Amino acid sequence: MVISFIGFFAALILLIIFTMRGVNIIIAALVSSAILALTSGLPLEKALTVNYMDGFTGYFASWFLVYLLGAVFGKVMEETKAADAIAEWIKIKVGANRAVFAVVTACALMTYGGVSIAIVAFSVYPIAVSLFKAANLPHRFIPGAIVFGSISFSMTSPGSPEVQNLIPMEFFNTQPTAGGLIGVIIAVFIMILGGFWLKSMVSKAVKDGEFFNLPNSETGGAALAETAATVEMKKDEKLPNILIAILPLVVVVIVLNIVSKFLSPTGAALVALFLGVIVGLVLMNKYTQKYGMIFGKGSENAIIATANICGVVGFGAVAKESQAFTYIVDSLVGMPGMAYAGLAAAVTIIAGVTGSASGGLGIALPILAPLYNAQGLDPGAMHRISSLASGGLDSLPHNGYVVTTIRVVSNETHKRAYKPIFILSVVVPMIALVLAVLLYTIFY
User: Fold this and answer.
1) Cα–Cα distance for residue pair 216/242, rounded to 1 Å
2) CA-CA distance, 276 to 178, in Å (whole number)?
3) Which one of 95, 132, 180, 387 is most buried, by most CB atoms within 10 A?
4) Which positions ≥6 away from 196 have C-beta within 8 Å?
């Protein structure tokens, strides 16, 4: 048991180190899984070819179509200039002096509207650069603002079309709006606390003499020049009217929350996203004719995004077989008089191990939901707690979206940019989760 615990945490730490050093997440997950298997007494061949691959392919089979339509929808919003129109409208209304708020708002609107998270980051980044540069704010906070706006509250809020809010539906027989007023209160709490904390961090950095700058690297300088050129080019583009641009997002959210009463979570998401794609293409047809690119690139993005998540889900599937994991889960489930707290802690830890909110839910709920359903707990409360819990430790450095936003989208480094992300997407959601558990325990 001792060796299993040592191997469990050593493999997790190694996975984080590999990821921070830029090692491909799938390779890093495979190597870490092998170490975990060897230290836990699991047959190596079975761990990699059965446990790992079952986790990998199982998640892919369950959610790839949702990611596919979400990525295509994101490309529709990008190529029709709808994303630019939304970001530009927020920029004009808010102004450069509130650059941080503008970036967070733009990300939240598009994420809550069903746009793929990865596409949101790529779409908002050029606008973020323009705003931060005009206000002379430190560039290293851009990834934090993007991550905070796109995942910290928007993906776990009641009614959200993101998979982190859809997965609990099939285990607790609930709706996307599950969790009631408390769910809304927690979402607002995260927005306020996180927004205040982010603003305070940026203000302190400026007061300490920081300004708009990138890491001293040739790649970063080239990327900034390219981004600046993109921003200048977009100034001359004709953008859709803001009401037309935002309508596809509204369609996705409304349809999802209506159709989910009659279809499975996956089916409801597919119908909502499909209609969002159709509405976007019909209303903004004159802004693009690149249909082949929209569907082709959207498909490529979906495959890459899903495979990266599947990689860490596979690692979690191997971890699930270890003695250490079994002991941890049994201890949490057995917490007397604190059922909601046990559920929250278990989902949080599993999401942290997998480095994925959706992957953590996919592994945790098949194990935990039957146990907690049998206790007669409120399904809506369990849904919202599970969703919120998935959005805490999942944002450790090896999280695929965090790596993409810092290194690929923003050309930053973990050393410069990760601290704000840790505070905004780990610390704040964890505080909110504790508050949610207390409120649900008292009122449900």
Assistant:
1) 38
2) 23
3) 387
4) none
> In sequence order, what DSSP letters do the residues of 240-281 get, joined into one string?
--HHHHHHHHHHHHHHHHHHTTTS-HHHHHHHHHHHHHHHHH
Place of tokens 């849904």: 383
> Longest C-alpha distance within the chain, in Å?
64
In the chain, which residues have pLDDT < 50?
A: 217-223, 225
pTM above 0.70, yes or no: yes
Q: How confident is the model over 160-180, as pLDDT tens digits?
A: 888 899 999 999 999 999 998
Q: How far apart are CA 208 and CA 210, in angstroms?
A: 6
CA–CA dist 246, 421 (Å, integer)? 27
Query: What is the C-alpha to C-alpha distance for residues 371 and 316, in angstroms, rounded to an integer?
Result: 20
Cα 376 from Cα 441, distance rounded (Å): 13
Q: pLDDT (tens digit, 9 = 90+) per residue, 249-307?
A: 889 889 988 888 888 888 888 999 899 999 999 999 888 777 888 888 888 878 887 88
CA distances from 93 to 103, 122, 276, 367 (A): 12, 21, 26, 47
Which residues, including other chains, have CB under 8 Å from residue 139's CB and lie 6 or more apart? 129, 132, 212, 213, 214, 410, 412
Quick one: angle between helices 53-79 and 265-283, nearest 10? 20
Handedness of CA 80, 85, 88, 90 (dihedral sign): negative
Q: Rounded distance, CA 433 to CA 246, Å? A: 30
Q: CA-to-CA distance for 96 and 76, rounded, in angstroms?
A: 27
pLDDT of residue 230: 53
**Which amino acid would we find at residue 141?**
F
> Is residue 154 a contact partner of residue 429, using CB atoms and an 8 Å limit?
no
The token duo for 172 is 């607790």
Tokens 């037309």 label which residue? 244
Could you give the CA distance from residue 205 to residue 212 in angstroms, rounded to a whole number?
11
CA distance to 23, 154, 173, 266, 350, per residue, from 168 (Å): 31, 16, 8, 11, 15
Instruction: Compute the distance between CA of residue 269 and CA of residue 287 in angstroms, rounded to an integer.
Output: 26
